[in-house]
Design goal:
The protein is 40% helix and 22% strand. It has ten helices and twelve strands. A hairpin with a 2-residue loop joins strand 6 and strand 7.
């Protein structure tokens, strides 16, 4: 009786182990296929149909593929080390390495630094006191805000550290703001039936004219919005080239470093100042979609992600310094 019971228990354990390894094999295979969407989306960057949209959506989740694929590979290697497991892991690595280029780094203290932060306020639901404390600790010179409600705008107008403000309040997702310690000049607001509001402006910093663009493209929930997001970022990259000044584009870009939208602006010289650390959703961030992009006049001293401020996004920041060539060119 006892022998039969032990035999049945052994069969059950072996079946459970087989199911575990089968699930791990499936997870590793799915992760490797998902990871390959990153290089594939670059090949489809000139396309605007359903395939390009779908591949781009899949490419956003590289963090998930790395973590899930790594766990599955570790489980499988305990029992069946082999070429296929290593090959699948290599494919995940290829996907991860498909991220768009990050701008060059600079040594802290080597030159004056400008600090910029960006935060999505979740339709005005973010805790503004927490945000104010965080940007105060950062010593941010510029702050770009998205989803600014009327109540948020009223409270932000009282922030004495940022007397120069461009603000459009909206009870939907289209509220936008640029806050600056120094005067904003040459400002313009662009909006159309196809594209949500964006701001372009300039500040004078350390004797240099600095361009700043604040944007919040629609999330790529359809092929149409996917294409419009690419178009908005491309237009801001062209603006950055046209102004012939050190320039910055910041906001909730609804794009990860593996997306076709950020790949599209690389040829125009807009590179990420922010890293690969996820910003959304705030409680357990999985994908990095809040970014600060810079042209080749800048180097990155530091960048990072801020705390939970009650939004569905974590804020992001970058500390920037001008290259010597940019200083001498003016």
């Amino acid at each position: 009786m006892m022998a039969a019971l032990l035999n049945r228990l052994g069969h059950g354990l072996r079946a459970s182990m087989r199911m575990r390894f089968d699930a791990a094999a499936f997870g590793l295979g799915a992760s490797s296929v998902g990871a390959l969407s990153a290089p594939l989306t670059r090949l489809l960057s000139d396309e605007s149909g359903y395939l390009a949209w779908l591949v781009d959506l899949i490419a956003h989740w590289q963090w998930l593929y790395v973590v899930a694929g790594g766990v599955c590979a570790a489980i499988l290697l305990r029992r069946r080390p082999g070429v296929l497991v290593l090959l699948a892991s290599g494919l995940i690595g290829i996907g991860w390495s498909g991220a768009t280029t990050r701008a060059d780094s600079a040594m802290p203290g080597s030159a004056p630094a400008l600090t910029i932060a960006t935060a999505n306020l979740k339709l005005g639901q973010a805790r503004l006191d927490d945000l104010a404390h965080w940007i105060g600790d950062l010593g941010a010179d510029l702050v770009v805000l998205q989803e600014v409600s009327k109540e948020s705008a009223r409270r932000i107008a009282q922030w004495q550290d940022y007397p120069h403000q461009l603000v459009t309040a909206d009870e939907g997702p289209f509220g936008l703001a640029i806050l600056s310690r120094t005067p904003l000049t040459g400002s313009e607001a662009l909006e159309s039936l196809q594209q949500p509001l964006r701001y372009r402006s300039f500040i004078s910093w350390q004797g240099h004219r600095i361009g700043i663009s604040a944007i919040h493209p629609m999330p790529p929930i359809s092929p149409t919005y996917h294409q419009r997001r690419v178009e908005m970022l491309t237009e801001e990259a062209q603006w950055s080239q046209h102004v012939s000044a050190p320039s910055i584009v910041a906001g909730d870009l609804n794009s990860t470093p593996w997306s076709s939208a950020l790949a599209a602006v690389e040829p125009a010289g807009l590179l990420r100042a922010t890293g690969l650390r996820p910003t959304w959703p705030a409680v357990f961030p999985v994908i990095p979609i809040d970014h600060i992009l810079i042209n080749d006049a800048w180097q990155v001293v530091e960048s990072g992600v801020g705390p939970d401020i009650g939004s569905d996004h974590r804020p992001a920041f970058a500390v920037l310094s001008l290259r010597a060539q940019a200083i001498h060119a003016e």
